[in-house]
Amino acid sequence: MSLELTSATFDDAIKTGTVLVDFWAPWCGPCRMQAPILDQVAQEVGDAAKVAKVNVDEAQDIAAKFGVRSIPTLIIFKNGKEFKKFVGLQQAAALVTALKG
After folding, report:
1. Structural domains in the chain?
2. pLDDT tens across 20-41, in order?
3. 31 an active-site residue?
4. pLDDT band at 10 (very low <50, low <70, confident <90, very high)
């Protein structure tokens, strides 16, 4: 299960460790297809990384801060710093490899 982040909780959630953040919206078809893939990724990486979501409709400030122009956009943060960005629907293997790298 993904952690839902808001403008109030975002900075604290990404400041330590490795966190994969899914920028999504409920009306986005590819975002809905990405959700079960992210659940699989979360199971595969276990405690090595957290998987979180940001609803771009509710947290437009965060989306703007990281230049999210299309969704789904997935960003891996390591200790608060942007490490890698993916735009569009991603397969589990690519995300797991990036998280473990």
Report:
1. 3-100 (3.40.30.10)
2. 999 999 999 999 999 999 999 9
3. yes
4. very high
Q: Is 70 helix (H, G, I), strand (E, B) or coil?
A: coil
**Closest by Cα among 50, 51, 71, 41 to 59:** 71
Catalytic residue list contains 90:
no
Question: Which one is catalytic: 28, 35, 87, 92?
Answer: 28
Strand pairing partners for 73? 23, 87
Tell me, what amino acid is at 30? P
Q: What is the DSSP letter of 31?
A: H
Residue 22's nearest CA partner among 58, 59, 53, 64 is 53
pLDDT score at 2: 66
pLDDT digits (tens, 9 = 90+) for 52-101: 999 999 999 999 999 999 999 999 999 999 999 999 999 999 999 999 87
**Active-site option among 31, 37, 74, 96:** 31
- Backbone φ, ψ for residue 50 (5° rounding): -100, 150
